[in-house]
Amino acid sequence: FEIIEKNFVEVFAGSGSVGLEALSRGASHCYFMEYNKTAFRCLESNIKNTDPDRCSTFYGDSFENFANVYRIVKKTGRKTYFYFDPPFSTRDGMDDIYDKTVSLIKSIEPEICEMVTVEHMTNLDMPKEIGQLELVKRKKFGRSTMSYYRPKST
User: pTM of the full predicted structure?
Assistant: First the structure.
């Protein structure tokens, strides 16, 4: 991915490993959202050991925090990668977490979106289009699949 000088938003960040990897590859700034207190402490510790000046953390429900983080990212004027990985512990039998995630993705405008990546259970069929984004690739890793979306071609 061409991540250099772009934003990266990691929703359901956990330890922040994906966003921190994006920073190591040249992302300009990373925004992390995490609800679990233990995971959030781990995330903050990991950030302190890397590049805290290029990171912003948001503790609390990602579904509630997303609009605020989105506004901040939009003001930067930079293209942004969004990474959604709902927690494994709630995936089985919790299809509504994906419905809520799809609702968040629908709000993303193509003008600021470079790509949206969703990690999900392989048995879940993600839509071919979400809002103004279209599915461009799927990669399966056992029980998990990564679905990649980009703004629709005009």
Answer: 0.93
